[in-house]
Amino acid sequence: MQDLWVFGYGSLMWRPGFEFAERRPARLHGYHRSFCVYSHVHRGTPERPGLVFGLDAGGSCRGVAFRVEASKADHVRNYLQEREQVTSVYVERMASVVLVDSVQRIEALCFVVDRKHCQYAGALDFETQVDLITHGVGQSGRNPEYLESTIGHFDEAGIADKELTRLWRAVEMRQRQLSAFR
């Protein structure tokens, strides 16, 4: 039995929910972070979906890698399956990840979006993303909080993403506009 590495690119970066021995900045090649998953549970409902991140094909993604001690690996894998696979929109995959602070390659557990799943949103236009995120609410809270928390933790991981910051500003503005009309 060996240690398990887990790659986080969204809420796992700032709310892993499991015990880990090490947290390192990392890059996954071949996939990019994208608001490409309709959320029917955590940040929305089937009637009013929110929008959450998925690892979609192409490009690369900066995130964090967590090292889990071998003795806890099965427990963490089971926890992540329950958390990430509520509707089976993700596929578990072991992938090569680079630890950016040492250029070391590791194999890490990743949750990649299943493009054949009904919750796969694909590449949505900017205004549709703003609308879904602004209005999404699910079991884990409001969708705007998910985006805000992710962006807020990018600094810790050394990640800069101008497009997500632009998206957050548009969501904030839309929320202010909606509040003004209430």
Features of the shown structure:
182 residues; alpha+beta; Hypothetical upf0131 protein ytfp; two-stranded antiparallel sheet; 34% helix; globular
Summarize the helix and strand pattern as letters: EHEEHEEHEEHHH
Beta-strand content bin: 35-45%
Number of domains: 1
Radius of gyration: 16 Å
Low-confidence stretches: none
Q: Give the fraction of residues assigned to helices.
A: 25-40%
Derived from helix and strand composition plus strand pairing, the structural class reads alpha+beta
Average pLDDT reading: 94
Major sheet: 5 strands, mixed, barrel
CATH fold descriptor:
Hypothetical upf0131 protein ytfp
CATH homologous superfamily identity: Gamma-glutamyl cyclotransferase-like
CATH hierarchy, class: Alpha Beta
Distance between the termini: 57 Å
User: What strand line-up does the widest sheet have?
Assistant: 1-3-2-4-5
The count of strands amounts to 7
* Rough outline: globular
Q: Based on the structure given, which CATH architecture is correct?
A: Roll
| Count of discrete alpha- or pi-helical segments spanning 4 or more residues | 6
